[in-house]
Amino acid sequence: xxxxxxxxxxxxxxxxxxxxxxxxxxxxRNGLAHARIGFAVSRxxxxxxxxxxxxxxxxxxxxxxxxxLHGVDILVIPLAQETALLAHHASLQHRICELFxxxxxSSA
Length: 108
Known about the structure:
alpha+beta; Ribosomal Protein S5, domain 2; 21% strand
């Protein structure tokens, strides 16, 4: 599932923050039996193709990660430009998995 409404994104302001090498995660418990993910990718990151590619990569990692079974909302924000983050899909996948793994103990 994804964060979609303006209220969902506004609630993330009260969330806790994690950061790792060009990525920031804001998370909070949602009271549901599953996790939801949202993205805030500005035009500074790159063109439309680059922004959507970033989202597709992160959604795929999220889909395969056990964190999706926990009741948390996650907002993903890239802090670096596309060339820095997407140099290698494997490195981006590794970074986002590190952040998701840091959430597992604290959200369970």
